[in-house]
Automatic annotation (TrEMBL), chain A:
It comes from Pristionchus entomophagus. The chain crosses the membrane at residues 15-39, 166-184, 190-212. One of its GO terms (biological process) is triglyceride biosynthetic process. Pathway: Lipid metabolism; Phospholipid metabolism. Coiled coil: none annotated. GO terms for cellular component: endoplasmic reticulum; membrane. InterPro entries: LPCAT1-like, Plipid/glycerol_acylTrfase. This is Phospholipid/glycerol acyltransferase domain-containing protein. Residues 252-363 form the Phospholipid/glycerol acyltransferase domain. CDD domains: LPLAT_LPCAT1-like. Belongs to the 1-acyl-sn-glycerol-3-phosphate acyltransferase family. One of its GO terms (molecular function) is glycerol-3-phosphate O-acyltransferase activity.
TrEMBL record, chain B:
The keyword Calcium applies. Keywords: Calcium, Cell membrane, Cytoplasm, Lipoprotein, Membrane, Metal-binding, Myristate, Nucleus, Phosphoprotein, Protein transport, Repeat, Transport. SMART domains: EFh. Signal peptide: none annotated. It is found in: Cell membrane; Cytoplasm; Nucleus. It comes from Pristionchus entomophagus. Its main location: membrane. PANTHER family: EG:114D9.1 PROTEIN-RELATED. Residues 109-144, 150-185 form the EF-hand domain. Gene3D superfamilies: EF-hand. This is EF-hand domain-containing protein. The lineage of its organism: Eukaryota, Metazoa, Ecdysozoa, Nematoda, Chromadorea. One of its GO terms (molecular function) is calcium ion binding. The keyword Phosphoprotein applies.
Amino acid sequence: AAMIIHFVAGLASLLYLPFIFTIVLLVIFLSATGLTLGIRQRVADLLILIFEWGSNVTEEPEEPTKDEQTQKEEEEPKPATIKKRHSSSDLRIIKREHSDVIENKLQGQDVLKKKSTVSVLVDDTLDFISAGIESIIEDNVTSRFSAEQLPSWNLLSRTKYDFQHISPKLTILWILGFCFRYLILVPIRVCLFVVGMASMCLIASAVGHVPNKSIKKWLNRRAMLMSMRIFSRSFSSIVRFHDRQNRANQGGICVANHTSPMDVMILSCDNCYAMVGQKQGGILGFIQTSLSKAEHHIWFERSEANDRKAVSNRMREHVDDPSKLPIIIFPEGTCINNTSVMMFKKGSFEISATIYPIAMKYDSRLGDAFWNSTKQSYGEYMWMMMTSWAITCDVWYLPPMTRLEGEDSIAFARRVKKAIAKAGGLVDLEWDGALKREKVSAKLIALQQKLYFERLSRRTSMCNDVTDEDMDILKNMSEEDRNQLLKQLDESDDVDAVIRKVSSFIPEVAQLVTEGNQTEPVN
Amino acid sequence: MGNNSSLMLRDEEIDVITNETEFNRNQIVRLYSRFLSLDKKGQGFLEREDLMNVPELAVNPLGDRIVDAFFTLSGDELESEKRLNFRQFVRVLAFFQPIDRTKKNSLNGRKDKLKFAFIMYDLNKNGCITREEFKVILNSMVGANITTDQLDKIADRTIEEADVDHDGRISFQEFCKAMEKTDIEEKMSIRFLN
């Protein structure tokens, strides 16, 4: 019996290596020519069908109402539809009504009659409390920095949740999946990765020696595209590009939302970009140097990176040169979990007046590409990617956007962000991605206070000090007259009101106001 | 990464919490998931800082006070015990469930909701809201945007309206009386989805 096992093992290993070898060769051929056999897509579709079948088996035993059941069925994913899927919004805990109320109040969208200061304060305090509790239960920001929840399990232990029942059938499926992934997929992928890395560095260095500029450019393009395609196959990425007519050709700046370190790799499968980044040491540094031999990339020294002006200048030089490749930039500054787009930093929007926006939406059912840099190291992340099923991504090239007359870079950035969010079906947030690691800035807190103060001024007669006599007069007036008077007081151009408005912006004037109030009575 | 936690919630615990509060199993599990995501250091309990790390709470003018009231109401009598385990977390959240008149729930009645608001105002926890304490609250809501004069005037007006026995402070009874006309149930209830 032992001999049979030995024989089978020998045969397996004999077939195994050539098997991997052929696949690698096939992949290189396909990448070089830019063709695809469509295998990845078919396997992905099959897997999704399997997941759905699996989750049908794991309906929870307790189902109180029929409504709930139909709701759950609707939540399950439809097979591989392109375009916008709002997945994680299905798993809300509460309905955030009070937060919306506060939002409306602060933005001045509840323009009603003026009320007494006390009643407004009490009312608002209660709303603030409830909105605060709501944000403890569920908020818009902290959820963006961890992987989004899937409606149904995709047979990866990393996405299993405590509240899911796993039947024996599903366990068997999981074991099969595990074997398939680790024994077949991973070796192929590791080989491909090594091949891709080697080809990229070697060919780039070789191309660097070519004297003729246009041939060099052509060769570099073919080489980069091929290497990137090998890479993307090494992670089993399935990428769909939309609206390719909007691709950047003649240089310029491309911006995209950031989800993972692989964003650049995925985008480079279709077009060549000049990369921007900090000069690293070690292996990454070596890669950076080899790449730079064939084409112009922008690598900053650590000290230079802190000097904003130097950075802008170098980028501007690059953009102004039409022979150079378009730059790819991720203005969020950090990886977000691909359910939303967070604040775009204005730096890159100051350099050029024309921006080519790109929207990227990953489908996390087969593997979540999001890199949580606070929890995973780079190596761990790469390993996770290698052992997932596949990485699916939709890329939309948006038509180029230009800065309008009199639009400052912050407003421009916001406009581009909105367009990207809309195209990718992502939530558009104004929060800074830096909140992943940092606390809320004091400026933001002060802004909220100012907004609330403005609300009080709108809704109460707080700022225009009303004496008791005035109160009596007001009470005896008719409703319309009273509203008229209050409106006039509000809009009056008296100096005190103006100073108060200005003092909310400039602290020195506020100082004058308090001093002035001590000497003369407020009218 | 997914919710692969070693701090798993046991079924018995879920049952106890279901009996104590009006949350069903599904909601409790989701709240547990949230508890874990707030507990970034994986300690098994929450501290003040963990709650204040929520950006939307940090910009809420009363954020600080809400966290304080949260911890005070969690049931720990000791000042030094500023830790919140999951059970305490859910108990406080249960205060904000909508009032269901058919069920005899001890946690989310009108009085209990008012208690939360009262504790939020009462900084030193002596059972009374003074003018000074109110001024502090008001100050955190509007910041440096109003003069101290206006602050005093508003505080005075507010305290006077509620202070029935004119002792310059507001007790819990006076507070409840002042809130009689307010629809507390609507204002301080959060709709939990199933």
